[in-house]
Amino acid sequence: MANGLAFVILAFAIGVLLHSANAQVPAVFILGDSTADVGTNNYLPASTFKANFPHNGVDFPFGRATGRFSNGLNTADFLAKFYGFKRSPPPFLSLNGTSAIKRRSFRGINFSSAGSGLLDMTGQVTNVVPMSEQVYQFSTVYNDLVAFKGKSETEKFLAKSLFFISVGSNDIIGNYHSNQSIPKEQFIPNLGLVYEKYIRSLISYGARKFGIVSVAPVGCCPSQRLYTGTGDCLDDLNDHARTFFSTMDNLMRNLSCEIKDLKYSLGNAVEMTMNVITYPQLFNFTDVKSACCGNGTLNAQSFCTPTAKLCSKRHKYLFWDAFHPTQAAAKLAAFTLYGGGPQFVTPINFAQLAQA
Ligand SMILES: *[C@@H]1O[C@H](CO)[C@@H](O)[C@H](O)[C@H]1NC(C)=O
Ligand SMILES: *[C@@H]1O[C@H](CO)[C@@H](O)[C@H](O)[C@H]1NC(C)=O
Ligand SMILES: *[C@@H]1O[C@H](CO)[C@@H](O)[C@H](O)[C@H]1NC(C)=O
Ligand SMILES: *[C@@H]1O[C@H](CO)[C@@H](O)[C@H](O)[C@H]1NC(C)=O
Ligand SMILES: *[C@@H]1O[C@H](CO)[C@@H](O)[C@H](O)[C@H]1NC(C)=O
Ligand SMILES: *[C@@H]1O[C@H](CO)[C@@H](O)[C@H](O)[C@H]1NC(C)=O
Known about the structure:
Elements: E1 28-32, H1 40-43, H2 75-82, E2 108-110, H3 131-149, H4 151-160, E3 162-166, H5 169-177, H6 184-204, E4 209-213, H7 222-225, H8 235-258, E5 263-267, H9 269-278, E6 287-291, E7 293-294, E8 309-310, E9 317-319, H10 327-339, E10 345-347, H11 350-355
Parallel strand pairs: 1-2, 1-3, 3-4, 4-5, 6-9
Antiparallel strand pairs: 5-10, 7-8
This protein binds 2-acetamido-2-deoxy-beta-D-glucopyranose (NAG) (6 copies).
InterPro entries: GDSL, GDSL_Est/Lipase, SGNH_hydro_sf, SGNH_plant_lipase-like
GO molecular function, one term: hydrolase activity, acting on ester bonds
Pfam families: Lipase_GDSL
């Protein structure tokens, strides 16, 4: 997906925390799915849920398949760079107890889990940690921080840190394709209420800076285009993503009226992505429909494997595989979140959020 939050397994050496003398915020906490993983495991029967094999990583240094569903770097990698960090934060599950938070180099934790959703029932497959559990995991980190630094220092630290959240795609795709699918007029506001509950929990622990990315027009992923028979986007599914954005927009406005020191950026992944799909030439893309790596119709009928067909001009493609953006698309998404105008990221962009 082109909003590109392809937060795919980054294979961090344990203990290699991000650090940089000139990072713009003290720490980054990441929650959510690995947006670009939208339902990979649920909707591709053959999916192995892994990407630690070629052709993935073909444009990564030394062509390493790190586990990212990408030919190279993902949006998180680029955003972390823009924020002045050397790399994205390590997964929660790779940390051993409390030692990590006691290091001077502590710069945040990644709680996000590929395939997860706002609803506990979303992506009930192995290794998926739903938002409820991620927020719980954060609460344990909060308690450790309080025990280590005291409540007031902890809250000062957290208030300046960035909480980056990208979630909802798996819930929306799951509901859309479910036998008992709930109409969007009912389903999306309900998702909003669940989201609100988690944001309020984080606020209660001291979080004040939120970088939120709404759901991308998932109906334009090659995998979803297969459903239309014409290769066009599945507009109906995109409408869910649009409704989700306006729900989040209202929710965040309301919360920021109520909580005076709340700062946020809300990325409009629908606008960002549709802009690229409508004007591909402006961004030097020549193919915004099919997967670069795969097989069959739109190269999207099977996943990217070592024997799949690989496009030659990878930087000309929006989609790497049936669900995930290319490195070029991921970079563009990060660039837009960081420096984009109000039609793409509102009320301020991620660069302004760092300073806010
Ligand atoms: C966060 O961790 C999850 C689980 O290990 C991983 O799938 C995801 O790619 C990571 N995201 C980032 C930005 O590091
Ligand atoms: C965490 O614990 C595991 C298993 O005990 C160990 O192999 C690993 O080196 C530890 N990592 C750190 C960063 O201490
Ligand atoms: C959904 O409907 C299909 C076709 O009617 C059926 O094969 C499948 O078992 C149903 N799945 C669930 C979870 O009810
Ligand atoms: C925002 O607040 C308005 C006015 O109180 C309310 O009608 C609306 O439902 C709220 N929307 C969300 C998403 O919280
Ligand atoms: C597109 O390619 C041209 C020529 O290589 C380059 O000058 C331009 O900066 C590129 N535009 C984008 C948005 O990458
Ligand atoms: C790709 O599709 C062709 C034609 O259907 C098939 O012969 C081939 O085995 C497929 N390759 C892979 C890697 O799935």
